[in-house]
Amino acid sequence: MWSGLGPEMSVVRADLGELIAFGYEIEEHPLLGVAYRGPAHRLCPDQIEHELATKVIGRRIAVWDRVGSTNDLALRAAASRANEGLVVLAESQTQGRGRRGRSWSAPHGTSILMSILIFPAEPLTLLDRLTAVGAVAVAEVVEEWIRAKAQIKWPNDVRIHGKKVAGILVEVDRTGGVVIGIGLNVNVTSTDLPEELRDTTTSLQDLTGTLVDRSEVARALIHRLDYWYTQGLHPDSDQLGEAWKLRSEHVGHLVRVELEEGSICGRVVDIDLKAGLLLEEEATGATRRIPSVMIRSLSPQKLVEVVDPGC
Q: Measured between alpha carbons, how far is 42 from 209 in angstroms, rounded to an integer?
């Protein structure tokens, strides 16, 4: 849409110059005025913070160009509880990590690399719920952009049509602070990825066919994270659990669950943040509940892992 520059020409031109210098695509016409043609390729803190009005998450937002790990920066900030709600974003990271020590990398300026610092009342007993906070928030934002249902693969991947678009990593600091780390592929193309990931990974740009405004994605994600964090920790509310189960990739499907005692093959009847997995065993037809407390008690190398497509 074209807009006239109005009488305060010098002021408007100065503002336009700043926007263009930052990277926004602005077209000027001698008669029609100016028109917005596209987002900046860089994350814009002012755009993300504008009238954000969240309760906890997003009280302070820090955007970096290049870091080792956004989770590490957020964990460092856990030394002070005054930093609760801090959101750390980066254009790229050199030591990003996923679950089980796996790395998470993305080309500079293509993704949402975000870490959020919070201080929940009982962090060690809330890890599964906080992972769900991240997964559901990401899934909702992805759904808004692509107009299709996102699915959550146990326990922390968000996928579209069987391809991973995001991952969540929750880490606890000795101070009681918890960091929710999120990596979301936004403007990553298949040519940006290592060949071995091209068949299993996707992005918002791949799914929409157009360049996506990452600042708007970050803003929307902070809103949903704040909502689900404040809703999901109420002991009498199961809204988070229902939203998580609704998007579960595994309910109704045959899976193999690796436990410390061995493997179990069965169909997932139910998945619950509080109670864990309910399986109908393939061999006997009997149902078996694998409680969340059992999942949490296993060593990091032997966490319950649900593996599709079957047993």
A: 19
The correct CATH number of 254-307 out of 2.30.29, 2.30.30, 2.60.40, 1.20.1630 is 2.30.30
CA pair distance 203, 220, nearest whole angstrom: 16
Q: Which amino acid is at 80?
A: S
For the chain, the structural domain boundaries read: 2-38, 45-246, 254-307
Three-class SS of 138-190: HHHHHHHHHCCCCEEECCCEEEECCEEEEEEEEEECCCCCEEEEEEEECCCCH
User: Do 45-246 and 254-307 share a fold?
Assistant: no
Residue 295 binned pLDDT confidence (cut-offs 50, 70, 90):
low
Q: Domain spanning 45-246: which CATH class is it, in words?
A: alpha beta
Which residues are bridge partners to 243 per DSSP?
Answer: none
Directed axis angle between helix 239-246 and helix 214-232, to 10°? Answer: 130
Q: What is the pLDDT of residues 40-63, one digit of tens each?
A: 789 999 999 999 999 999 999 999
**The tokens 């592929």 sit on which residue?**
185
Sheet holding 60-67, edge to edge: 60-67, 86-93, 111-118, 178-185, 163-172, 157-160, 151-153
- 167 compared with 234, residue with greater pLDDT: 167
Host H or E run for residue 215: helix 214-232
Give me Rg for the CA atoms of the chain. Answer: 21
* Tens-place pLDDT, residues 184-228: 999 998 888 888 888 999 999 999 999 999 999 999 999 999 999
Q: Which carries the bigger pLDDT value, residue 7 or residue 136?
A: 136
Strands 178-185 and 111-118 turn out to be: antiparallel
Q: State how far the Cα of 105 lies from the Cα of 85, in Å rounded to an integer.
A: 24
CA distances from 18 to 26, 90, 207, 297 (A): 11, 21, 31, 53
Q: Please, are residues 112 and 89 in contact by the beta-carbon 8 Å criterion? A: yes
3-state secondary structure of 40: coil
